[in-house]
Design a protein that fits this description.
There is one protein chain. With 706 residues, the chain is an alpha+beta fold. The chain has 2 domains: 320 residues, Thrombin, subunit H, CATH 2.40.10; 247 residues, no CATH class. It has 24 helices and 22 strands. The termini are close together.
Length: 706
């Protein structure tokens, strides 16, 4: 039986670690000369590895034998049950119960977006009556995760897979009882299929939320980076329908000792969809076409919005949208850099070659999946022929970050033209997007000019068409004219007032509508003719990859809860090593180095904390868990299922985990629970809440070893 280390020895290890960190500078910039995603190794030395598929496990049947071997532990069914029952699913996030009276931990970012009027001061509930209820927020507590593969296969005898999944889900839901929700998860890779049974709690309240300046310390520059020094954590309390705190036997007790470098950690949370099943050719097309186009849309949006906000007083909605766009741009650039990295590209090609060899060695699999990668490559070649049209018409109007006016152009028809183009569903959807937020005029002008410039590049071989549309004007000049005088400038000025506005002959947008209406719809028809078969081929490719695996890695994508494992561990970066922990020393060092300005400014209470604040205490940790699972509030647990941290997201390398998992470089970044304890007691004076979180101990969690 494994034993816990004595507290004195644990303290000794921690001190040794921290002594080595005190003099380490808090560097945020990435050294462009140092490979970010892998070593500068010759291509013939790069090999695909089993870890490329990730560490994503089923909660219904976690690989307990694997955990026992890797981490010197003896998990059993009680361990797995305790893990499941302590999890909560929030809208787009994860949380975990940490007390018998309904306290739960998640990230501050998951909570803040649901506050109707965000306070400038922190939320610190001295009494339960002070806790602030979150409107339109629910917490789904996972009761069980059951393998229903046999039931789905039986139902599929008379119908397709999707219909079979829905039929099983309806049957299980009817048997579940009141206030239970059943979701049957299926992925592109096919079975196994899992039924997740949740109990929904609609009364969720905030007990603690730090200031945005602390939870987002460093702003966008520090987002998705490591080393990081942000207290991105929130304490919630879940209540029953009767208004009483949720009483539960299953929760994750906060660890009193914390974790050390090399300690195993587990995380469970919402499984984000990935593109790990896609071939190297598919991802190369994303690198060459889709991601650069998205980067250009986001760069135009952020540049225009920043320029606008520099000249006017910005409200919270505008600032929130700016931060969201800047984060999306940073994420897109990182993914593009990953796919442009020769080490990553070589590893992706080796992965496909490895799959080909495995299929050839098994005649049955070769018969079922042989030639699949070549078929996918053929589709990519056809897509590349549409590259110019994609830049002009792709993704309709680029969603939230595109021009609403351009979307209306794609939906519009000329006066006297016949209505009904077979695209009314897409047009209606565009109209609903327009009504969500009225963009400032300079921003919409820039977005429309960007799209018109892409249209000009697409039309350039046809000089007559370019002259007819632009009439000697630049894209910016035409965009301003349309926004000043066209009926398409805003939904309320559209002559039809509906999803397919009518444009009169003398409208300045009429020549543009003539082109984008016909060519845009033709492109979308041709693109859909390729993406439909490609989706089916990709689903088969996912099944082929699973068929040749030797470990039961799960595919992500159904937003169900999954499990991942790893260790507390730094990684090589900037020609040195990133430490496994950051401390309060680093927080204050950064604030001082940036002279306490901008996103590195600390609130007054943080500049003058209590003398009891232990600045050597770990604030943020890094773990080698799979970021597809350990994100947005997922609990970080030790092997005894004690709570040690809250996952906040990936490091910049982990952003590329959408394509493959590189355990040498990709890390989950999370708030260390020891940092939260210091903040509650020494900064916010929340002794009562800290005592409730950390002051009591009960018997060890199931599966732990004494």
């Amino acid at each position: 039986m494994a034993r816990r280390l004595p507290p004195l020895l644990t303290v000794g290890w921690t001190c040794l670690l921290l002594v080595g960190l005190l003099g380490r500078p808090a560097v945020q910039a990435q050294d462009r000369g140092a490979p970010r995603f892998g070593p500068a190794a010759p291509g013939d030395t790069v090999v695909a590895e089993a870890s490329d598929a990730g560490r994503v496990w089923s909660l219904a049947a976690p690989p307990l034998d694997r955990f026992a071997t890797r981490y010197d532990m003896a998990p059993d069914s009680a361990w797995a049950t305790h893990l499941r029952r302590g999890l909560l699913r929030l809208p787009d996030c994860t949380a975990a119960l940490v007390s018998a009276s309904g306290l739960a931990l998640t990230t501050a970012s998951c909570v803040r977006e649901h506050l109707e009027n965000e306070p400038e001061m922190p939320l610190v509930a001295e009494e339960r009556d002070d806790e602030r209820r979150l409107s339109n927020v629910h917490a789904d507590r996972l009761l069980r995760a059951t393998d229903v593969t046999a039931a789905v296969r039986a139902a599929r005898q008379d119908t397709g897979t999707t219909q079979a999944l829905q039929a099983v889900e309806r049957r299980l839901q009817s048997d579940a009882g009141a206030n239970r929700r059943v979701e049957v998860g299926g992925t592109a890779a096919g079975p196994p299929y899992t039924a997740y049974t949740y109990r929904r709690h609609r009364d969720v309240r905030v007990a603690f939320l730090p200031e945005r300046a602390v939870s987002e310390f460093g702003g966008v520059a520090a987002a998705m980076t490591y080393p990081r020094h942000a207290l991105d954590v929130a304490v919630l309390r879940v209540y029953t329908e009767g208004g009483s705190p949720l009483s539960t036997e299953h929760f994750f007790e906060p660890s009193t000792q914390g974790v050390r470098p090399g300690d195993p950690v587990f995380a469970a949370g919402r499984a984000q969809p990935t593109r790990r099943a896609e071939s190297a050719e598919q991802l190369a097309l994303r690198r060459d076409l889709m991601l650069p186009a998205r980067r250009a849309w986001l760069e135009t949006w952020t540049r225009a919005l920043r320029a606008h906000l520099d000249t006017t007083e910005a409200g919270l909605p505008e600032q929130t949208r700016r931060r969201a766009a800047e984060r999306a741009l940073k994420r897109t650039r990182a993914r593009l850099q990953a796919l442009d990295n020769e080490y990553v590209q070589t590893r992706l090609r080796r992965r496909d070659a490895q799959l080909r060899r495995a299929l050839r060695q098994d005649p049955a699999l070769q018969k079922q999946f042989g030639g699949l990668i070549d078929s996918v490559a053929t589709v990519q070649e056809a897509k590349r022929e549409l590259a110019s049209a994609y830049r002009a018409f792709g993704r309709v109007g680029a969603g939230e970050y595109g021009s609403a006016t351009y979307r209306r152009m794609l939906a519009a028809r000329q006066q006297g033209a016949a209505a009904g183009s077979g695209h009314t569903a897409g047009d209606t959807r565009s109209a609903s997007v327009d009504s969500t937020w009225q963009r400032p005029a300079p921003v919409e002008t820039a977005l429309l000019a960007h799209r018109l410039d892409a249209l000009r590049q697409h039309l350039r071989p046809d000089t007559a068409a370019v002259r007819r549309v632009f009439q000697g004007r630049t894209p910016s000049q035409l965009a301003r004219t349309i926004l000043e005088t066209s009926v398409l400038a805003a939904p309320t000025r559209a002559s039809s007032g509906g999803a397919t506005p009518v444009v009169p002959p003398d409208d300045p947008a009429t020549p543009v509508v003539e082109v984008v209406r016909s060519q845009g719809h033709a492109f979308r028809d041709n693109w859909r003719a390729l993406t439909g078969p490609e989706r089916r081929l990709t689903r088969r490719l996912a099944r082929a990859r699973r068929a040749v695996r030797t470990v039961p890695v799960q595919s992500a994508g159904d937003m169900g809860l999954r499990l991942t494992d790893g260790r507390v561990q730094g990684y090589p970066y900037n020609g040195t090593l990133a430490p496994p922990f950051t401390t309060f020393f680093g927080l204050y060092e950064q604030a001082h180095a940036f002279e306490g300005e901008g996103p590195w400014a600390l609130p007054d209470r943080w500049r003058r904390p209590s003398e009891t604040l232990d600045r050597s205490a770990p604030l943020v940790l890094a773990a080698s868990t799979d970021g597809i699972v350990s994100n947005n509030g997922a609990p970080l647990l030790n092997k005894y299922l004690e709570f040690v941290g809250v996952a906040t997201g990936p490091n910049i390398q982990g952003v590329a985990g959408d394509y493959l998992f590189l355990p040498e470089r990709m890390r989950t970044v999370g708030v260390d629970l020891r940092g939260l304890r210091q903040a509650l007691t020494a900064v916010y004076g929340a002794e009562g809440l800290a005592s409730e979180l950390f002051g009591r101990r009960s018997t060890a969690a199931p599966g732990s070893q004494q």
